[in-house]
Amino acid sequence: MSIAPISHRIPTFGLLFVVAMLSGCGPRSGLEIIPVDGVVTLQGQPLSNALVTFYPQSGRSSSAKTDSTGHFDLKYSADKMGAVVGTHEVHITYGGPQPPSQAAASGKSTVTSKPIPPGDYKSPEPFSVTESSHHFEIKIP
User: Fold this and answer.
1) Which sign, positive or negative, has the C-alpha torsion 37, 98, 101, 140?
2) Alpha-carbon span 138 to 41, nearest angstrom
3) Where are the beta strands (DSSP E) in the chain?
4) What separation in angstroms does the CA of 124 have from each of 61, 91, 92, 128?
5) What does the alpha-carbon distance between residue 92 and residue 136 come to, in Å, rounded to a whole number?
6) Residue 3 CA to chain centroid, in angstroms?
7) Overall pTM > 0.85
8) 37 vs 135: CA distance, rounded Å
9) Which residues partner with 77 through β-bridges?
10) How buried is residue 101: exposed, middle or buried, by Cβ count under 10 Å (0-12/13-18/19+)?
11) pLDDT for position 65
12) Residue 34 confidence (pLDDT) above 80
C-alpha cells in the first residue's frame, strides 16, 4: 500500500473543508439578528462599565459594556451589532472602581464616583427580543 505524497493530500483537505462549511459545520446561518439597546440602573442610578450579556435559547450570546449613562448597544460579533430574535437570559456583571462622571471629568463637579461592590445580576424573567421589543430598561434593585 502506498501513501500519496503530502502535496497530493493538501487539495483533499481543502475540498473537505469546503464540503464541511457547505454542510453546516461552519457559522450558523438563518438566525435573525436585530439591533438591541437599553439602559441599566442600580438602585435607580445609571450603572456604568457593566458587562451586559444576552444568552439566547439557541445561537451565540451578545454582549456590551454600559457607558457613563448606563446605556448599552449589544454586539453579536466583531462585525454585527444586535442579538438573535427570541428568548434570552440576561446577565450583568458589575462593580469595582467606576470611571468619573462626565461632569466631574469636565471640571464642573468635584464629586468623584464611589466604587461599587462587585456584583452579578441575572434577570428573574427571560427577555424577549423581537422587532417590536428591542430596547430594554434593566433595573437592578
Assistant:
1) positive
2) 6
3) 33-34, 37-42, 45-46, 51-56, 62-65, 71-73, 75-77, 80-81, 83-84, 86-96, 116-122, 127-129, 135-140
4) 18, 10, 12, 13
5) 13
6) 48
7) no
8) 5
9) 80
10) middle
11) 96
12) yes
Model confidence band, residue 99 (pLDDT cutoffs 50, 70, 90): low
Provide the grid cell at 29.
446561518
Question: How far, in Å, CA of 66 to CA of 115, rounded?
Answer: 16
pLDDT one-digit tens code per residue, 70-94: 999 999 999 999 999 999 999 999 8
Q: Report phi then psi at 32, rounded to 5.
A: -85, 125
Give the per-residue pLDDT at 30.
72
Helices (H) and strands (E) in the chain, counts: 2, 13
Question: What pLDDT score was predicted for residue 31?
Answer: 83
Longest dimension (CA), the chain: 82
Question: Which value, in Å, is the radius of gyration of the alpha carbons in the chain?
Answer: 22
pLDDT at 105: 52
Cα separation, 136 vs 62, in Å, equals 14
- Strand pairing of 75-77 and 135-140? unpaired
